[in-house]
Specification:
Blueprint: E1 6-15, H1 21-29, E2 48-51, E3 55-61, E4 64-74, H2 85-99, E5 106-112, H3 119-133, E6 141-146, H4 148-153, H5 158-164, H6 167-175, E7 180-182, H7 191-207
Parallel strand pairs: 1-4, 1-5, 5-6, 6-7
Antiparallel strand pairs: 2-4, 3-4
Length: 220
């Protein structure tokens, strides 16, 4: 921590190409640290670290307000258009060991709310996360459902969306103890929307007793 009244949380972005992973990271940071644009191939090829400025009015501990700082590690997508699974994992482990020496608070698995989650894709993703984070991955993973605005345009509220969701998605959400957030790509950059999302993430971290997952770089 830079100051005694600061709290820093370390987040890892994971997801497939064009899920809005880098854009979600930018939303949480309140800036445009990560390259994000429409592309027929995977945009991110190496990990990059983004840091927020001090954020006030989000968290209090022991009766005192703390300034929140967010560090986000954006990773290449998986599956990737030009990198193998082993290359993506190797790059993620290297960057985690370099930037998050004190540990990882939460990995954010980014999925699109406007696209169905297929069993094969889900199994592939879970295997990737298990191999990257280890046997306790469920305790340190939350799901971010992007493009929630498109689901709303189709007439789905959060409740009706989950009621209609596939068993594959519901099983995934259950496995991570229902740690999920909906991200409206059009509104979330608004200060109030961002604060709501950050409070939800902090609640996930608090329920995990502020534990941090320490990952050492290994050859892969």
């Amino acid at each position: 921590m830079a100051e005694s009244n600061d709290m820093t949380i370390n987040l890892l972005m994971l997801g497939k190409t064009q899920t809005g992973k880098s854009a979600a990271g930018n939303t949480l940071l309140g800036s445009y640290d990560f390259k994000s644009h429409l592309s027929p191939s995977s945009v991110t090829t190496c990990c990059s670290l983004g840091r927020s400025s001090r954020i006030l009015g989000i968290i209090r501990r022991n009766g005192c307000e703390l300034a929140l700082r967010i560090q986000i590690l954006d990773t290449p997508s998986y599956p990737h258009s030009s990198l193998s699974k082993e290359q993506v994992q190797h790059e993620a482990r290297r960057a985690l060991a370099q930037h998050f020496k004190e540990g990882l608070h939460l990995a954010l698995l980014v999925l699109r709310a406007d696209l169905p989650l297929c069993p094969d894709d889900n199994n592939q993703t879970i295997q990737f996360i298990q191999e990257l984070l280890g046997p306790t991955w469920k305790d340190f993973t939350a799901v971010v459902l992007t493009h929630a605005d498109k689901a709303e345009e189709a007439g789905f509220s959060e409740d009706t969306y989950l009621h209609s969701a596939s068993s594959t998605l519901l099983s995934l959400l259950s496995s991570v103890q229902h740690k999920y957030i909906f991200l409206d790509n059009q509104k979330s950059i608004i200060k109030e929307e961002r604060a709501t999302i950050l409070r939800k993430l902090l609640d996930f971290i608090r329920k995990n007793d502020y534990q941090q997952l320490l990952l050492k770089h290994t050859r892969g």
